[in-house]
Specification:
The protein is α+β, with helices and mostly antiparallel strands. It contains eight helices and 27 strands. The chain has a six-stranded mixed beta sheet. The protein has a six-stranded mixed beta sheet with strand order 16-13-17-20-19-18, sandwiched between helices. Strand 23 and strand 24 form a beta hairpin. Helix 1 packs across helix 7 and helix 4 runs parallel beside helix 7. The protein is elongated and about 100 Å long.
Length: 426
């Protein structure tokens, strides 16, 4: 059997980046940028006030403290008020300030802004209003964002492989990008197999259970920014499996849930072989998820849209729901990430201290449901109570999978362990 890292490497070697498509910016969230973005603007386009207050010349306000160490008080004439959207009409001269609002452009001659809270109205000076500034501290350039300080025309701002998050959409909007080039999201079909399954909206009869894997996998596919296509349920009959799998092979990625273990009705590997799907590996040193099957279908389907040539990545996931979930996160999500051109293909796996002691039974490397907690301002992780691969209730409370090696041992509270962050984390 392969290790988790060996299996993941074998999968990723089979994945090629997706072609690019051009989409409206409003449709690009969650996808991955496939081209570099160069700034067409200076941001900000002028020296910009970051506070409501008074635009000043630093040479007019740089002074020592007053008597007994009290803050210095400086009187300046106020010549105009500048709001966001206005343009200054007058340059500052010696002894003169301008009332200014957050986001407004500084007048010529000004290089700093004194916040409103450090000001009081002063007496009129030669018929003009004035302001008294009380300055315990002053730093030239304070409360000002200089022209082009965020980005300059011609500067590369975003690179290929950047996830398009809401903040990236905001940045692209600032640059006037109405459309963006993104990696085409793959279509991922999901087929649940088993005589015992009924649709999740149905009432199970004796010996039956609802199909939880189909909706769960579809949600995981969507969370990876891919396009889910549920194929429903196929019974443990070769003819029914063959017909359903043939439909699934029209997609770029096919997920089969169940039928890949060693029982008499675990027919999926044989049906895949009869359809010309090449096995890359079967079984991984993993708990839960040992029966994982992975293969490649290379066939002539000219009508397939956006497929990786004539290739379909085929994952035979274990039927138990937690095993299926874990295998998606460890193996399918990285394949989708690479397909979509993400720079960071593998899931984040920081180390966190255990909130409580834990006894690991060993036998196989394990990825167990866990929950992050805060204690004394620091993150830690607690292994959740879990009754095995069928326990979706235990998994539902998890925001990480806690990783333990093959060796059996007792872990003490505070001992650091690697965790895999789940996409459903709050």
């Amino acid at each position: 059997m392969l290790s988790v890292s060996e299996a993941r490497q074998a999968i990723l070697e089979q994945v090629q980046p997706a072609p690019s498509v051009t989409l409206p910016l409003s449709a690009a969230q969650g996808l991955v940028l496939s081209h570099s973005v160069t700034s067409t603007v200076n941001s900000p386009p002028y020296h910009k006030a970051l506070m409501d207050g008074f635009a000043v010349r630093s040479e007019d306000v740089q002074t020592s403290s007053g008597q007994d160490g009290a803050p210095a008080e400086i009187q300046l004439v106020v010549q105009e008020e500048i709001t966001a959207g206005d343009w200054p009409k007058l340059a500052l001269s010696e002894g003169v300030a301008a009332r200014i609002m957050t986001g407004a452009p500084l007048p010529d001659g000004a290089d700093s802004v004194v916040m409103l809270e450090q000001s009081t109205q002063g007496p009129a000076s030669a018929g003009r209003p004035s302001v008294l500034l009380t300055l315990p501290k002053f730093r030239p350039g304070q409360n000002v964002l200089r022209l082009g300080e965020v980005m300059k025309v011609g500067e590369t701002i975003l690179s290929p492989g950047t996830p398009i998050t809401p903040s990236v959409i905001g940045l692209l909007a600032e640059l006037g990008q109405a459309e963006v080039s993104v990696a085409q999201p793959p279509t991922v079909t999901a087929l649940s197999t088993g005589n015992e399954l009924v649709p999740f909206v149905a009432q199970p009869e004796a010996g039956q259970i609802r199909n939880s894997n189909g909706p769960m996998l579809a949600a995981q596919i969507r969370s990876a920014a891919a396009i889910p296509q549920e194929l429903g349920i196929a019974r443990d009959r070769e003819d029914e499996l063959r017909q359903a799998i043939e439909r699934g092979l029209e997609a770029e990625i096919l997920l089969l849930s169940g039928g890949v273990s060693a029982g008499d009705l675990d027919l999926v590997p044989g049906v895949l072989k009869s359809l010309g799907v090449r096995e890359v590996f079967h079984k991984v040193k993993l708990k839960p998820g040992k029966p994982l099957w992975f293969g490649i279908a290379e066939r002539q389907h000219q009508e397939r849209q956006g497929a990786e040539g004539d290739r379909t990545l085929v994952f035979g996931l274990p039927g138990n729901p937690v095993s299926s979930f874990v295998c998606f996160e460890l193996f399918v999500r990285p394949a989708i990430n690479k397909r979509m051109g993400l720079r960071e293909v593998l899931p984040a796996s920081p180390r966190l201290p255990l909130a409580a002691s834990f006894s690991h039974a060993g036998g196989r490397p394990a990825f167990l449901p866990g929950k992050r907690e805060r204690s004394s301002g620091k993150d830690q992780v607690r292994v959740l109570a879990w009754l095995g691969s069928a326990d979706l209730r235990g998994l539902a409370g998890a925001d990480v999978l806690v990783q333990f090696p093959v060796e059996a041992r007792d872990y003490k509270a505070g001992e650091e362990v690697p965790v895999l962050l789940l996409d459903n984390r709050p």
